[in-house]
Sequence to fold (334 residues):
Amino acid sequence: MQYVGIHTQMARNNWNSMMLLLMFPCIILGMLWVFCCVFGIQSTYDQYYQEQHYLNTDIVNGLWLEMAPWAIAIVGIWFAIAYLFNAQMVQYATGAHALERKENPRIYNMVENLCMSCGMPMPKVNIIEDPQLNAFASGINQKSYTVTLTRGIIDYLDDDELEGVIAHELTHIRNRDTKVLIISIVFVGILSTLLTLLTRGVLRMFLWGGLGSSRRSNNKGNGGVAIIVIVIVAIICAAIAYFLTLLTRFAISRKREFMADAGSAELTRNPRALASALRKIAAAPGLGHVDREDIAQLYIIHPKKFTESFFDKLQSLFSTHPSTEERIRILEQF
Fold:
């Protein structure tokens, strides 16, 4: 695999970050408009006094314009909190703590030497007291950039393998992959919550409001059918919006792993060491006490337990990481 170059990859990730920031608010506003459509259902009676339902676009657009500023403000505050405190959230979720030089000079010196060799400031180094093999990079700026290693990976890998893993995570930071991924994780988390609230709200309206009124209508069939159709359309549109955001995040995640592997090979001049490390990590990846998909996206190898329930044909589409076998094959071709 040909390495693109640090500056090219940084520029691409900056562009991806900007596109994500522009795309997600548009999707949120689109979801809000669909939700407003539910309130825009109007009833009228024809010449035979049969109740008919139609969508009043004036009411929908007026309600959307009234709610949009509030939605943007709430989502903006929500995003700002998650964006600014993402490092603390990841640390709390994984149980990581800072690793000092005196505690483990072997690891600290590895990180420091690799940073000096590529001319980058040294990030924080965290450790998780977990026997499983795992490593990941996180953070959005120099103050929050962090390389996290588990006790298992530190004890099980030899120096060359561990150096390859650390170089892989440092490349994520150099390429600003962590920034792109954090932005996508935050927005997808927001959309997931909004989708849940939207679904529950519409269903509650249908069960306690629309269903009762439809039963009292002169035309017992048309009212219920119309409301059911609106409910289904609203849920499908919201689900499509969420699905599109997932595809964007997954595509970014898969590509970044290949680039980080190439960056590790470039830094260490020893691609086979990282290939050997990936073989060992694949036997026990993840964290035993963390079952969160958003955290799992940061791992150097995605745990299989998060993807076992998907159909085989869809695994490549919904996987946040490329195949470990494919990564090893490419590294061994360097």
User: Anything to note?
Assistant: The radius of gyration is 25 Å. Residues 211-222, 306-316 have pLDDT under 50 and may be disordered. DSSP finds twelve helices and six strands in the chain.
